[in-house]
Amino acid sequence: MILTRLLLIVLFIVVNTTFVCAQRNDSWVLGVGINIVDNSGSRFDELLDIENNWNLSRLLKTTLEKRFEYDYGLEVGFSINEFSNGKTINSEINQKNINYFAVDVMIKNYTSNYWLWGCDCHNPWYNLYIVGGWGGNIFNGGINNTLNIGFGMNIKLGIYMWLNFQTLGKFSIDNNTSGNANHLQHSISMIFQL
């Protein structure tokens, strides 16, 4: 309960900072794509076991990001998936389909801007970034809090359009439902600078 209150206080501070900083002339970024969830419990042993571990159903992911200056962004993301019958979930074979819904509030740091000197950092052909924050994952009738840490890459396709690849490690803070464990979420999205 204390951790939930602490997360709400941090979220309140981040949202207030967003509204104060929104006075600047920095861009908003909208993303729409697909996501894959690997909640097999195998850690790093079976990362590419797509057939048994990757959940590829109801793949929708949407994000909204506020960019600040060159190097930072605040992102809110929503994703829907399903833990399919027969897939490995937390080291056990799943016996039924379970809906998965996630809300993530994260801060990004565009690390590639540190070595892209001499170019327009608002408009390079690629961006590399690290990302971290809080996640709320809903499945089996409960909300499960996670600490999210990951990395990603944007590749420029046009003036206002990018292709995004991202991998998140979601580390469980609590254990409200069975099957809640550390898991990975990979995504591919089209993002549009507004």
Record keyword descriptors for this entry:
mainly beta; 12% helix
Question: What would your notes on this structure say?
Answer:
The chain has 2 helices and 11 strands, in the order H-E-H-E-E-E-E-E-E-E-E-E-E. It is mainly beta. An 8-stranded antiparallel barrel has the order 1-3-4-7-8-9-10-11. It starts with a helix and ends with a strand. 27% of the residues are buried.
Quick summary of this structure?
With 194 residues, this protein is mainly β.
Mean pLDDT: 75
N- and C-termini, Cα separation: 38 Å
Low-confidence stretches: 14-25
Helix content: 10-25%
Main-sheet strand order equals 1-3-4-7-8-9-10-11
- Number of DSSP strands? 11
Q: What summary fits the major beta sheet?
A: 8 strands, antiparallel, barrel
The string of secondary-structure elements, in order, is HEHEEEEEEEEEE
**Strand proportion:** over 45%
